[in-house]
Specification:
This is Cora-domain-containing protein. The protein has about 350 residues and is mostly helical. The protein contains 10 helices and 2 strands, in the order ββαααααααααα.
């Protein structure tokens, strides 16, 4: 911030200028310029306003250039800019070949492997700074009109002061006005510098507006990339779930096959073991008939029990009634009971 105090004696434009600023370099530059262009200040002391405005315009230009490069680096992280080699990476090493390689990787589909969680924070921080810069540029761009009005007021006061000083003299009012008004060249030079500074500040303001639009667009792109990445992760999870379901179904079919084979041959194997143990003694010509009939009956019984078990285990439970419906019914019933 530059604070300027100016006291002008209207009769001969003698002036006292006090400048204060926290930055010693700014004070040194302004003092050096005042000494270097003393002729302009002698012609009219309001040239100091242009000196201050031009000094601030230079600072604003460097500020805008820094923000421009920072936004460009953030855009290069999402592959939304074609000029990767013009910006250094976030670490500041400035390796152009590495930046171009990263750019080709991003264009080739490397974005899906990148993390954009910290990028949103950086973009919002830049957006806050850009809005602050836009406010400052808007205020600075409006100073030109104020300086021009101040110049007109100063000239009018000088003319009025000249008329008062010459009212008791032989010199007429017209001659006094001519003597007290500044020359056309002096005023044109001051106004021209003011207009030039206004053009520079308007250009900086336009750049800030463009950077704000690019930052907002980058925020939308980042949200889209995050959503796309989340969708891809969900698709991969769903694909993995389908693969697991397929493997589970294959295992289930295998287990069912093993179960069917076991239930088919287990009754016959058990009866054969009982026959070989000598627990039952049958005649040789009837033994195979009894064995075959008993095996078929026992196998059918085992399959029937298994089917009943599967039916009980897999049958659907009746749907529970809605809680609100039940609550309404119970309330309605209680009202009827109370009425009765």
């Amino acid at each position: 911030m530059i604070a300027l105090s100016l006291r002008i004696r209207l009769h001969d434009l003698s002036s006292i200028i006090l400048i204060s600023c926290k930055d010693a370099l700014v004070l040194h530059d302004l003092s050096a310029r005042c000494a270097r262009q003393l002729a302009l200040l002698t012609a009219h002391p309001l040239h100091i306003l242009n000196f201050v405005l031009e000094r601030r315009s230079t600072d604003f230009g460097r500020w805008v250039d820094g923000l421009w490069g920072h936004v460009g680096r953030l855009e290069s992280r999402t592959g939304m800019t074609p000029w990767y080699s013009e910006y250094q990476d976030e670490d500041g090493d400035g390796d152009e070949e590495e930046a171009e390689g990263e750019g080709r990787e991003k264009v080739g589909g490397g974005l899906r492997d990148r993390d954009f969680t910290d990028l949103l924070q950086r973009l919002h921080a830049v957006g806050v700074e850009l809005r602050l810069a836009q406010t400052i540029m808007t205020f600075a761009a409006g100073l030109g009109a104020q300086f021009t009005n101040l110049l007109d007021v100063c000239e009018e006061l000088r003319v009025q002061n000249g008329r008062v000083a010459h009212e008791d003299r032989d010199t007429g009012a017209a001659a006094a006005d001519m003597n007290m008004r500044m020359g056309r060249g002096v005023k044109a030079e001051i106004v021209g510098r003011i207009k030039w500074n206004e053009c520079v500040l308007r250009e900086s303001k336009t750049k800030i507006a463009e950077l704000l639009d690019r930052t907002n667009a980058q925020i939308n792109v980042t949200y889209s990339l995050i959503a796309q990445k989340s969708s891809e992760q969900n698709l991969r999870i769903a694909q993995g779930s389908r693969d697991i379901a397929k493997l589970t179904a294959e295992d289930s079919r295998t287990m069912k096959t093993i179960t069917v084979l076991t239930l088919t041959f287990l009754p016959g194997t058990m009866l054969a073991s009982l026959w070989d143990a000598g627990i039952f003694t049958l005649e040789a010509d009837q033994s195979w008939r009894v064995y075959l009939g008993t095996t078929i009956a026992l196998t059918a019984f085992v399959f029937g029990v298994w089917y009943i078990y599967i039916w009980i285990a897999t049958r659907k439970l009746p749907l529970l009634p809605d809680a609100d419906t039940e609550k309404g019914k119970s309330g309605y019933g209680s009202k009827i009971s109370a009425f009765k």
